[in-house]
Amino acid sequence: MIIVEDFGQVEGTPAHAWRLHGSDGLSIRVTDYGARLTELHVPDSNGETADVVLGFDNVESYVESPSYFGATVGRYGNRISRGEFRLLGRDYQVDRNEGNNHLHGGRSGWDSRLWSADVDEQSNSITFRTHSADGEMGFPGACDVMSTYQLEDRKLRIIMQAIPSEATIINMVHHSYYNLAGHASGSVLDQLMRLPSEFYVPVDSELMPTGEVLTVNDTNYDFRVMRAIGARFADLPALGTDVFPGGSGYDHNWCLQGGSAPLIEAAEILDPASGRRMTLSSTEPGVQMYTGGYLHDQIIGKGSQAYCQYAGFTLETQKFPDSPRLLHFPTTTVMAGDTYRHEMLLEFSTS
Question: Residue 243's pLDDT is what?
């Protein structure tokens, strides 16, 4: 049974949250504000469940925070240099909301609005819908947008879709921060990560891709064999110093083999203490791992928990950042009437 709950108000309009339950203790809570995942309860090797995503207890806290916790991000997730791109011979300027660059759809992206919701008890799913107007944040074409969460046996499936009225660029991203020990457990740096990728995309001091695609061989970006997330932090260069002074850790795109249907493996994560294991698969050609280097203890999350630096990591399956400008990267162009579709599958087990 899918249960709806009050979740506060956004400028006087009520927001809601829904709880979905799967098998073996797996459950989620989602809200219509930003079509976002607010809770993900997963059992450990002893059958004890914990909420393994960062977030807040009410919609007002999501409105006040710029963290994108659990959100459906669009129209363009990740970054576009100077917010400029050319499409079919025409130049466009979209919102620049991170220094000189565009990030995650702009100041009024799809994460910062209330969506409509349709519940399907039979499939144990909920679909959120919104409409994006032509010219919104500078993007061409109107879009009808959907984001679906479906719970299956020990699996969470997320499907993001959009249909534009004219040619545009689309790169929808799901932006949960995960901590497999539980959202209130502190740093994730001792959790183990595997990324089955031979190549990654280096970034400059503004976190923009340099345009290169480099091998992970003999680098600190080689996660092909599972290892602790923080094992090589001491050897990493400073990260994004022109955007966030004091930044460190990872905020990079890894290139996946293939892309599009069928699903391809993007990541595997293990928390040795609890035994929780998560495997992520996707239709997309890239995955952005961000290790929460800009989180801090002034962010007060669920249950009045102060989140620390590295309290969670993201795994954002995607096209590559700055793809509209770097034409050798996978295209983000979607033509009028075509359907953009991005599917993620999170599978949970224990060790």
Answer: 85
Q: What is the mean pLDDT of each run of 10 residues along the chain (351 residues)?
A: 97 98 94 99 97 99 95 98 98 97 98 98 98 99 99 96 99 99 98 98 97 98 98 93 85 86 93 99 98 95 97 98 98 99 98 91
Closest-CA residue to 168 (of 132, 130, 138, 140): 140
Type of residue numbered 184: A
Q: Pull the structure tokens for residue 97.
A: 């909301």
Annotated catalytic residue, options 102, 104, 175, 342? 175
Residue 150, both tokens: 């479906």
Which pLDDT score is estimated for 257?
A: 84
Virtual torsion, Cα 216, 173, 8, 135, nearest 10 deg? 140
- C-alpha pair distances (Å), 249 with each of 258, 274, 321: 27, 24, 18
Instruction: Report whether 170 contacts 162 (CB < 8 A).
Output: yes
CA 47 to chain centre: 27
In 10 A of CB 237, how many CB atoms?
Answer: 9
Distance between alpha carbon 16 and the CA centroid of its chain, in Å?
Answer: 21
Check whether domain 3-350 has CATH 3.40.50.720, yes or no? no
Query: Choosing from 104, 316, 342, 343, which is the catalytic residue?
Result: 316
φ and ψ of 112, to 5 deg: -115, 40
Predicted pLDDT at 246? 74
One-letter amino acid at 107 equals R
Confirm if 169 and 152 have CB atoms less than 8 A apart.
no
For residue 175, indicate whether it is catalytic: yes
